[in-house]
C-alpha cells in the first residue's frame, strides 16, 4: 500500500468526513474541538486543498456554501489505514 496521508490532520479530516459531508467551518470546528486548540485557517484550508488535489475529498456547492465530502478513493484509503492500525494493535497485544 502506498503511504496514506502523512499528515495526521489530513487523516483526521478524512475521518470526520467519513461520517458526513460538512461545510468547511463546521469541519474546522469539529477538528478544533477534537484537538482542543485553534487551527490556523491557512493551514486548515491548505490541508483541504491537498486532500482535494489528491482525490481523497471533493467539494460541491449547496446554496451559497461549499460542502466537503470524502470520495470513494478517500474512503478506500481510510479503510486500508484502519485495517493497518487494527493489525498493528492485534499484533502488539496478541
Description:
By secondary structure, the protein is of the alpha+beta class. The protein has one domain: Arc Repressor Mutant, subunit A (Orthogonal Bundle), CATH 1.10.10. Helix content is 63%, strand content 15%. The protein has four helices and three strands; from the N terminus they run αβααββα. The longest helix is centred in the C-terminal third of the chain and has 22 residues. The two termini are 23 Å apart.
Descriptors for this entry?
Arc Repressor Mutant, subunit A; 94 residues; 3-stranded antiparallel sheet; alpha+beta; globular; 3 strands; 63% helix
Strand order of the largest sheet: 1-3-2
Please, what is the CATH homologous superfamily?
Winged helix-like DNA-binding domain superfamily/Winged helix DNA-binding domain
Give, in order, the helices and strands.
HEHHEEH
Low-confidence stretches: none
Total helical segments: 4
The mean pLDDT is 90
Find the structural class using helix and strand composition.
alpha+beta
Q: What is the fold named in CATH at topology level?
A: Arc Repressor Mutant, subunit A
Question: Could you give a short account of the major beta sheet?
Answer: 3 strands, antiparallel
Number of strands: 3
Ends apart, CA distance between termini:
23 Å
CATH class identity:
Mainly Alpha
Return the CATH architecture: Orthogonal Bundle
Shape: globular
Number of domains: 1
